[in-house]
Amino acid sequence: MKRSIRFIVFVVVALVAAFSSADVPGAPPPGSPLAGVSLRDMRKGPDGYFQQLADGRRVHFTVIPDLQQFADELFAANDVPAGAAVVLNSRTGRVLALSQYHGEAFASPVDDVALDASPPAASIFKIVTTSALLEKAGVNLNTELCYHGGGNSLQMENLIDSRELDSACRSLKKAFGFSTNAVYAKLSDRHLPRDVLHQYAERFGFGRPLPFDVAVSPSEVDVPAERLEKARAAAGFWHSHLSPLHGAMIAQSIAQDGAMLKPYIVERVEDAAGRPIYEAQTAYLGRTVEKDTARLLREAMTVTVTDGTARKGFREGNHPVVPGIQVAGKTGTLNGKNPYRAYSWFVGLAPADKPEVAIAVLIVNSPKWRIKSSSAAAAILREYFNKR
Fold this sequence. Notes:
alpha+beta, Beta-lactamase, five-stranded antiparallel β-sheet, 16 strands, 22% strand
């Protein structure tokens, strides 16, 4: 687990410098209208969130004030060690909320948690694996596989069929909704060469600079050649990193039938005289999957919320947290040690049939869990749909 220790460093070691333009690709160059923009310097004014720069420029941000404030207060109320939520208009890439929080328990936390890609992608990477299986392996959502083990770890024996041990069977759709690691390990071992899995990771933006209005840490991925480690990577056991912003972009592309759009948080910039010198525009980045594959992914993601790993987070007793809106998503959970950190992910979209928003929530919990990412996502989505 040496790799796991490396991945949890982001919450215990100072990485403030990681977000300087010299270190992270994609930072606006000097002289750009966006030079100097900082999410940490966003302030709430009568007309929304803004930043006043020393040279007189005024930056107007896209976030919805009430939604931004709600997410900020949600993290603070639960005093999570670290957390971030990104909500996008899935049809334009406009950032509707970008909230990030770190508690006092971290001596030198990352400042921009929403933009940092040190956290493990965990089972969010199953979105990539599922896409490759559907498009390149001749597998469909009803393909069923019997398995054993794999709940908290994957070993070589989990890749091999066993009449004695394989006591449960699941379709790919159910395996996605319940995040069944052993099914993903078996399917990827049999059907996905290393280069195909890596190709699909790149399609979703892993290993590439992510264009944004401020510098973003790229989400790295390593698909090993060794058989067991490749299967582990496909199931989301380490080997891939993800930022909350990138997680929201992945969900946005699925919401938009495979078209990934550039996210933007700066609406416009005015010079010292109040004249506009920059205005945001929607920009197409590329295709992650085919339209039919995106539809199938949304179908599988719906199972996560209705029956699977996010069901509890999206229900209050017998009632849905977001009434009248079907949410689709994927959870991810992975624990690190020394010190213990539990990474809790939810990446999703809503409504599932005609998406208008994409969301990613990351919460890093200590041994005492404050809140799960699915519960936080449900609360944020309820706030959005109640007031839209």
